[in-house]
């Protein structure tokens, strides 16, 4: 299985990137026979050898699709997000058991947007400043331009499909200039960096991160073993 092959080769893949990049996490969309490997690099020129000389040689790879995340915005997520726990005790963050259970039961989704091109920047700013929701939290936002017309991708967490559909239809879909939305559930995620290191980076840069490539690589260069989070 390709998923397991990437996990078993994670150290080798990271060695190839060296100090010029970091593999961040692996994810899989539900009902899709594919996986996504998120990688940050300070020098995009190293991607050619990384893809052709290493990723392409993994068993089960039949094709590779490269998507750039441009002007990404990352948002802090609770540590319990995506994790299921039946310990019955309050979290270290001081949240109640009920609140912790609600957070741990959240499912992850990606939403891609086809938009009216002249309003692209305006829509992006609107998404970056969406009002808070009791049921839905934002993971990241980025320009992707990965399909003709599909220019933006946003990662969301919600308790169920009904909540995410309502939020996408009534909030995102109502932004002037949004022509179409496509929602996919993320079936599973495996991080290659610790939750603490990731949160430390985005907390230093507030909610909207200034994408400093050298600083980004430096933040992850000393990371050893990851702990579970989505």
What would you say this structure looks like, in words?
There is one protein chain. This protein is α+β, with helices and mostly antiparallel strands. It has 2 domains: 2-67 and 190-220, no CATH class; 71-188, 2-Layer Sandwich (Alpha-Beta Plaits), CATH 3.30.70. Helix content is 30%, strand content 26%. The protein is built from 8 helices and 7 strands, in the order ααββαβαβαββαβαα. The chain has helices at 2-8, 10-17, 46-53, 97-104, 120-128, 161-172, 195-204, 213-220, and strands spanning 21-29, 36-41, 70-74, 107-115, 137-143, 150-158, 178-191. Strands 2-1-7-4-6-5-3 form a 7-stranded antiparallel sheet. A hairpin with a 6-residue loop joins β5 and β6 (150-158).
Any key phrases for this structure?
2 domains; disordered C terminus; single chain; 230 residues; 7-stranded antiparallel beta sheet; Alpha-Beta Plaits; alpha+beta
């Amino acid at each position: 299985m390709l998923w397991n092959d990437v996990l078993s080769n994670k150290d080798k893949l990271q060695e190839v990137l060296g100090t010029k990049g970091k593999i961040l996490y692996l994810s899989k969309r539900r009902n899709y026979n594919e996986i996504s490997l998120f990688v940050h690099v300070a020098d995009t020129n190293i991607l050619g050898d990384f893809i052709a000389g290493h990723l392409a040689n993994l068993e089960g790879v039949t094709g590779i699709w490269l998507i750039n995340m441009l002007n990404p915005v990352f948002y802090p997520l609770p540590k319990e997000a995506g994790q299921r726990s039946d310990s019955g005790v309050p979290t270290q963050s001081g949240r109640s058991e009920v609140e912790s259970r609600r957070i741990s039961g959240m499912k992850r989704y990606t939403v891609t947007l086809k938009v009216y091109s002249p309003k692209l920047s305006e829509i992006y700013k609107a998404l970056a400043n969406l009002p808070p929701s009791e049921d839905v939290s934002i993971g990241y936002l980025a320009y992707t331009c990965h399909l003709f017309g599909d220019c933006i991708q946003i990662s969301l967490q919600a308790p169920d499909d009904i909540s995410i559909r309502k939020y996408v239809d009534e909030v995102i879909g109502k932004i002037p200039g949004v022509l179409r939305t496509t929602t996919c559930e993320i079936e599973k995620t495996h991080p290659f960096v610790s939750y603490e290191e990731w949160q430390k980076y985005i907390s230093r840069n507030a909610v909207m991160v200034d994408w400093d490539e050298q600083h980004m690589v430096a933040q992850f260069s000393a990371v050893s073993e990851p702990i579970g989070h989505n």
